[in-house]
TrEMBL record:
InterPro entries hit by this protein: GtrA_CellWall_Glycosyl, GtrA_DPMS_TM
Transmembrane region(s): 37-57, 77-102, 108-126
Subcellular location as annotated: Membrane
Keyword match DNA-binding: no
A single GO cellular-component term on record: plasma membrane
Organism encoding this protein: Flavobacterium commune
Name of this chain's protein: Polysaccharide biosynthesis protein GtrA
Family: Belongs to the GtrA family.
Keyword line: Membrane, Transmembrane, Transmembrane helix
Membrane topology type: Multi-pass membrane protein
Gene Ontology process terms (BP): polysaccharide biosynthetic process
Cross-referenced Pfam families: GtrA_DPMS_TM (PF04138)
Domain GtrA/DPMS transmembrane: 18-131
Length: 143
């Protein structure tokens, strides 16, 4: 059974992903259609911008895992950067596969790929690795 806090955290994370994702997707279209970059390069640039927005929202609103210690945020940034590198790689490769093998427009292929990457890769790693809160062993939880 899900706890209310878990559901709320999941929904907040989806809002963060949506805001970062809309920025990412819109910038990808702009860079590909207007600037005429290949979509793989557009995904790299737009994914980075979307990731910065996503990280900020996750850190300060969703997981509220703020710390006065710079090493703590540095650790989170490093882990998040690794997730983003994996995410961008999966999105670029998935979009390319849909476009080359299945002749699906890159914009549609990207949306399909994003669904799998967001829920199967990004969310679990961000929640359970990047912003994981270590429980205090001295605190006894009650149900």
């Amino acid at each position: 059974m899900f706890k209310k806090k878990s559901i709320l955290t999941f929904l907040q994370a989806q809002v963060a992903a949506f805001v970062g994702g809309i920025t990412d997707y819109g910038l990808m279209i702009l860079l590909t259609e207007v600037v005429e970059l290949h979509f793989s390069f557009s995904i790299l640039i737009s994914g980075t911008v979307g990731a910065i927005i996503n990280f900020s929202i996750n850190r300060f609103w969703v997981f509220k895992n703020q710390s006065g210690y710079s090493s703590h945020i540095n650790s989170q940034l490093f882990k998040f950067a690794l997730v983003v590198l994996g995410s961008i790689s999966l999105k670029s490769f998935g979009t390319l596969i849909f476009q080359k093998l299945f002749q699906i427009d890159y914009r549609i292929g990207r949306l399909i790929t994003d669904l799998f990457v967001s829920y199967g890769f990004n969310y679990p790693l961000i929640k359970y690795w990047v912003f994981r809160v270590k429980k205090n062993p001295n605190v006894i939880e009650s149900n």
